[in-house]
Amino acid sequence: xxxxxxxxxxTPSPLTESSPEATAPATPSFFKPETQQLTGKxxxxxxxxxxxxxxxxxxxxxxxxxxxxxALGLVGFTTEETQHIVETGALQVIGRNPRGDxxxxxxxxxxxSEGVDVKTADSEIVxxxxxxxxxxxxxxxxxxxxxxxxxxxxxxxxxxxEGLYVCESTFHPTKEGATxxxxxxxxxxx
Length: 190
Known about the structure:
There is one protein chain. This protein has 3 helices and 10 strands; from the N terminus they run αβααβββββββββ. It is mainly β. A 10-stranded antiparallel sheet has the order 4-3-2-1-10-9-8-7-6-5. β3 (about 90-95) and β4 (about 100-105) form a beta hairpin. α2 packs antiparallel against α3 (about 65-75). The longest helix is centred in the first third of the chain and has 13 residues, at about 50-60. It is globular, with a radius of gyration of 23 Å. The model is unreliable at about 1-30 (pLDDT under 50).
């Protein structure tokens, strides 16, 4: 009688306990809040202080004075409708003003992703990155816009302690020596 040869040694795993890949999940996992707090219909709160901030913001974007004057007269008509899609973590935002509607869905991609295509308010296709932080703040970047001399827009959306929907928006110019443009939009529920 012949004996069977011993089984081959186990094949070593390409991942060892000490390799960074060993602890990384097979698929990305993202924080997705279960709350619908960012879902709603909102009207911009326009105060004299906001108008001053908005004028400064538009000047930082190198807008001509005539554009600034018209924008300041129409900004009070600004509304947003937001829909947080709990299953996917995406946030749909529909902005409306006398200039038109801007409907975009910010897909949950993660902070370090390449992003997905999204159309800007100026109908330019850019890459969007989007993620939620654990304090229920929705973060997004719109990358590589050619408008305003080129740059990126970052936004943080959340509900503040007064129950207002807030969007903190910053334009990060790529042009050497250009100044960032910041604005804090505050909306009340309608």
